[in-house]
Amino acid sequence: MSDARPAPGTEMIAQWRKWDGSPHWRHECVYLGADEWGDWIGQPVGWGSARPGREFVAAAPNVTLIPSARADHALTVNRDHPKGVRIYIDLGWDVRWSDDPLLVTGIDMDLDVVRVEGERGTWVDDRDEWEEHSAAYGYPAEVMAHLEALALELEQLVRAEHPPFDRATADAWLDRLAALGLDRPA
Q1: DSSP string of 4-50?
Q2: How many domains does the chain have?
Protein backbone atom coordinates (compact mmCIF):
# COMPACT_ATOMS: atom_id res chain seq x y z
CA MET A 1 0.00 0.00 0.00
CA SER A 2 1.31 3.39 -0.98
CA ASP A 3 1.00 6.69 0.85
CA ALA A 4 1.48 8.51 -2.47
CA ARG A 5 -1.55 10.36 -3.82
CA PRO A 6 -2.08 11.94 -7.22
CA ALA A 7 -2.46 15.68 -7.64
CA PRO A 8 -6.03 16.91 -7.26
CA GLY A 9 -7.79 16.71 -10.62
CA THR A 10 -5.89 13.58 -11.73
CA GLU A 11 -7.94 10.80 -13.34
CA MET A 12 -7.81 7.45 -11.55
CA ILE A 13 -9.70 4.19 -11.02
CA ALA A 14 -11.59 2.67 -8.10
CA GLN A 15 -11.71 -1.12 -8.58
CA TRP A 16 -13.87 -3.47 -6.49
CA ARG A 17 -13.70 -7.25 -6.50
CA LYS A 18 -15.69 -9.96 -4.77
CA TRP A 19 -14.39 -12.13 -1.90
CA ASP A 20 -13.32 -14.88 -4.32
CA GLY A 21 -11.22 -12.39 -6.33
CA SER A 22 -13.64 -12.08 -9.25
CA PRO A 23 -14.00 -8.59 -10.74
CA HIS A 24 -16.78 -6.30 -9.60
CA TRP A 25 -17.38 -2.55 -10.15
CA ARG A 26 -14.70 -0.44 -11.85
CA HIS A 27 -15.29 3.31 -11.62
CA GLU A 28 -13.64 6.11 -13.60
CA CYS A 29 -12.83 8.78 -11.02
CA VAL A 30 -10.78 11.86 -10.32
CA TYR A 31 -8.75 12.51 -7.17
CA LEU A 32 -10.05 15.53 -5.24
CA GLY A 33 -7.92 15.71 -2.09
CA ALA A 34 -7.99 14.74 1.57
CA ASP A 35 -9.41 15.97 4.87
CA GLU A 36 -9.60 14.67 8.43
CA TRP A 37 -11.82 11.79 7.28
CA GLY A 38 -9.60 10.47 4.50
CA ASP A 39 -9.20 10.80 0.74
CA TRP A 40 -12.00 11.98 -1.54
CA ILE A 41 -12.43 10.92 -5.15
CA GLY A 42 -15.14 12.09 -7.50
CA GLN A 43 -17.09 10.92 -10.50
CA PRO A 44 -18.34 13.70 -12.76
CA VAL A 45 -21.50 13.38 -14.85
CA GLY A 46 -20.94 11.14 -17.88
CA TRP A 47 -18.01 9.17 -16.43
CA GLY A 48 -18.32 5.40 -16.54
CA SER A 49 -18.77 2.51 -14.17
CA ALA A 50 -18.78 -1.13 -15.26
CA ARG A 51 -18.88 -4.62 -13.87
CA PRO A 52 -19.26 -7.93 -15.67
CA GLY A 53 -22.64 -7.76 -17.40
CA ARG A 54 -23.51 -4.15 -16.56
CA GLU A 55 -22.35 -0.63 -17.45
CA PHE A 56 -23.62 2.87 -16.80
CA VAL A 57 -22.50 6.47 -16.87
CA ALA A 58 -22.97 8.78 -13.91
CA ALA A 59 -26.19 10.76 -14.35
CA ALA A 60 -25.31 12.93 -11.36
CA PRO A 61 -22.01 13.96 -9.79
CA ASN A 62 -20.82 11.93 -6.82
CA VAL A 63 -17.90 11.88 -4.42
CA THR A 64 -16.51 8.93 -2.52
CA LEU A 65 -14.61 8.98 0.76
CA ILE A 66 -11.90 6.37 1.26
CA PRO A 67 -11.54 6.57 5.05
CA SER A 68 -8.00 6.94 6.36
CA ALA A 69 -8.64 5.17 9.67
CA ARG A 70 -10.59 2.13 8.40
CA ALA A 71 -10.56 -0.28 5.49
CA ASP A 72 -14.10 -1.62 5.86
CA HIS A 73 -16.27 0.77 3.84
CA ALA A 74 -16.43 3.57 1.29
CA LEU A 75 -18.93 6.42 1.54
CA THR A 76 -20.42 7.76 -1.71
CA VAL A 77 -22.52 10.93 -1.72
CA ASN A 78 -24.56 12.01 -4.75
CA ARG A 79 -25.84 15.43 -5.71
CA ASP A 80 -29.19 15.57 -7.53
CA HIS A 81 -29.33 11.82 -8.15
CA PRO A 82 -32.28 10.95 -10.45
CA LYS A 83 -33.61 8.40 -7.91
CA GLY A 84 -32.97 10.61 -4.89
CA VAL A 85 -30.07 8.53 -3.57
CA ARG A 86 -27.99 10.89 -1.42
CA ILE A 87 -25.74 8.41 0.44
CA TYR A 88 -24.57 4.95 -0.55
CA ILE A 89 -22.04 3.24 1.71
CA ASP A 90 -20.43 0.09 0.37
CA LEU A 91 -19.33 -2.13 3.21
CA GLY A 92 -16.10 -3.72 2.17
CA TRP A 93 -12.90 -5.38 3.17
CA ASP A 94 -9.35 -4.22 2.51
CA VAL A 95 -10.55 -0.92 1.00
CA ARG A 96 -7.31 0.94 0.35
CA TRP A 97 -4.94 2.63 -2.01
CA SER A 98 -2.88 0.11 -3.94
CA ASP A 99 0.82 0.48 -4.66
CA ASP A 100 -0.31 2.43 -7.72
CA PRO A 101 -1.34 5.94 -6.58
CA LEU A 102 -3.97 6.00 -9.36
CA LEU A 103 -5.83 2.93 -8.07
CA VAL A 104 -8.07 2.34 -5.05
CA THR A 105 -9.09 -1.27 -4.49
CA GLY A 106 -11.45 -3.10 -2.19
CA ILE A 107 -13.54 -6.20 -1.69
CA ASP A 108 -17.27 -5.56 -1.99
CA MET A 109 -18.98 -7.30 0.93
CA ASP A 110 -22.57 -6.90 -0.28
CA LEU A 111 -24.11 -4.96 2.63
CA ASP A 112 -24.79 -1.30 1.92
CA VAL A 113 -26.21 1.60 3.89
CA VAL A 114 -28.45 3.79 1.75
CA ARG A 115 -30.06 7.17 2.34
CA VAL A 116 -32.69 8.38 -0.11
CA GLU A 117 -34.16 11.87 0.02
CA GLY A 118 -37.82 11.69 1.05
CA GLU A 119 -39.98 9.25 2.96
CA ARG A 120 -37.96 6.10 2.37
CA GLY A 121 -35.09 7.48 4.44
CA THR A 122 -32.12 5.35 5.54
CA TRP A 123 -31.71 1.57 5.68
CA VAL A 124 -29.27 -1.34 5.41
CA ASP A 125 -29.60 -2.80 1.91
CA ASP A 126 -28.76 -6.08 0.17
CA ARG A 127 -29.19 -8.38 3.16
CA ASP A 128 -30.35 -11.11 0.76
CA GLU A 129 -27.15 -10.82 -1.28
CA TRP A 130 -25.12 -10.81 1.98
CA GLU A 131 -26.77 -14.06 3.09
CA GLU A 132 -26.33 -15.72 -0.30
CA HIS A 133 -22.70 -14.69 -0.75
CA SER A 134 -21.67 -15.44 2.84
CA ALA A 135 -22.63 -19.06 2.18
CA ALA A 136 -21.24 -19.20 -1.38
CA TYR A 137 -17.91 -17.50 -0.59
CA GLY A 138 -17.48 -18.74 2.99
CA TYR A 139 -17.04 -15.38 4.69
CA PRO A 140 -15.19 -15.87 8.00
CA ALA A 141 -17.42 -15.54 11.09
CA GLU A 142 -15.33 -12.69 12.55
CA VAL A 143 -15.59 -10.72 9.27
CA MET A 144 -19.36 -11.25 9.21
CA ALA A 145 -19.80 -10.17 12.83
CA HIS A 146 -17.70 -7.04 12.27
CA LEU A 147 -19.56 -5.99 9.12
CA GLU A 148 -23.02 -6.72 10.50
CA ALA A 149 -22.29 -4.50 13.51
CA LEU A 150 -20.70 -1.87 11.27
CA ALA A 151 -23.79 -1.74 9.03
CA LEU A 152 -25.98 -0.92 12.04
CA GLU A 153 -23.46 1.62 13.36
CA LEU A 154 -23.20 3.39 9.99
CA GLU A 155 -26.98 3.37 9.59
CA GLN A 156 -27.29 5.27 12.89
CA LEU A 157 -24.50 7.72 12.00
CA VAL A 158 -26.17 8.46 8.66
CA ARG A 159 -29.56 8.98 10.33
CA ALA A 160 -27.93 11.38 12.84
CA GLU A 161 -26.07 13.15 10.00
CA HIS A 162 -22.87 12.82 12.00
CA PRO A 163 -19.83 14.06 10.01
CA PRO A 164 -18.76 12.94 7.46
CA PHE A 165 -22.35 11.80 6.80
CA ASP A 166 -23.69 15.35 7.05
CA ARG A 167 -24.46 17.61 4.10
CA ALA A 168 -21.72 20.17 4.68
CA THR A 169 -18.78 17.74 4.55
CA ALA A 170 -19.66 16.07 1.25
CA ASP A 171 -21.10 19.22 -0.34
CA ALA A 172 -17.71 20.93 -0.05
CA TRP A 173 -16.17 18.04 -2.03
CA LEU A 174 -19.04 18.02 -4.54
CA ASP A 175 -18.37 21.75 -5.08
CA ARG A 176 -14.67 21.00 -5.71
CA LEU A 177 -15.64 18.32 -8.22
CA ALA A 178 -17.97 20.75 -10.03
CA ALA A 179 -15.24 23.41 -10.14
CA LEU A 180 -13.02 21.04 -12.14
CA GLY A 181 -15.51 21.18 -15.04
CA LEU A 182 -14.93 17.56 -16.08
CA ASP A 183 -18.51 16.51 -16.95
CA ARG A 184 -18.83 14.56 -20.20
CA PRO A 185 -21.91 14.56 -22.42
CA ALA A 186 -24.18 11.69 -21.41
Answers
A1: --PPTT-EEEEEEE-TTS-EEEEEEEEEEEEETTEEEEEE-TT-EEE
A2: 1
